[in-house]
């Protein structure tokens, strides 16, 4: 019987915003469940399209797997997480892990762009604490948001990182399912991957990161799918567009590759880096001054039967903005 600990701690942090994510922000239910821990966690997240739910669905069908629930927490994007909230939730997770007895693996549902009042790389610090507690022999697999800022610490302290492949995020459950499946394969094989990280040299604007439109549709769809096909089934590659509104040193796009053969992982990242670097000019901002946008919208409205939306994407509440810009 393999005992796998499952937990999550999610926040997308906009460091340009003053509002803090305090403990109440995680403990009050909103679009997602409130802070939940222990056996109650499984029931609380059931029915939601979340990475942790996809992971639980994958693990629950294995007769030789016992799920050990830790805790799961989410707060709406805003400014940094308070020291108090982070320490209380991280301690809750580690206490449940310590009280679980022997475990064989850990799955975590993290965002990848959490900044706190005392840590720029909050997920890297959480993974460090978990690694120090479980030791070097227990595999840790983590699913991340497409807007994760993947750091060196995250790569070092986790055995496997996987990322949503769609933005808008329509594949959260699938990503958790895939990550848990790879964790099970690591346990069955009894070995780990060679891992490599590539950090991009430019930032991707949020409104140009949609995977259903260019340039990401071809760069992340066609190119990455071709590279992934050469690595699988033994190797894997993921790309995160980064979250520049979390203004930390390691913010920005990144790709991670995993393979039993280090050279295969290096070659996969080399192929992707060529595609990514050549695409830089395609990510030039395409915003327009307000008066020009209104004029063009009126022209479009005369010829279209659909509504025309003018948006100030920089003040996006979904990315932690206040949503109170009135200039437009």
Give the overall form.
globular
Low-pLDDT segments: none
Distance between the termini: 59 Å
> What value does the average pLDDT take?
94
- Count of β-strands: 9
Question: How much helical structure, as a percent, in the residues?
Answer: 25-40%
Please outline the major beta sheet: 6 strands, mixed
Trace the largest sheet across and list its strands. Answer: 2-3-1-4-5-6
Describe the protein's topology.
Layout: E1 2-10, H1 23-27, E2 36-37, H2 40-45, H3 51-60, E3 65-74, H4 83-98, E4 105-110, H5 122-134, E5 140-144, H6 152-157, E6 160-163, H7 172-189, E7 194-199, H8 216-231, E8 236-240, E9 254-259, H9 262-278, H10 290-303
Parallel strand pairs: 1-3, 1-4, 4-5, 5-6
Antiparallel strand pairs: 2-3, 7-9, 8-9
Characterization of this structure:
The chain is an alpha/beta fold and 328 residues long. The chain is built from 10 helices and 9 strands. The strands form 2 sheets. It has a 6-stranded mixed β-sheet, sandwiched between helices. A 3-stranded antiparallel β-sheet has the order 7-9-8, covered by helices on one side. The longest helix has 18 residues. The N and C termini lie far apart (59 Å). The mean pLDDT is 94.
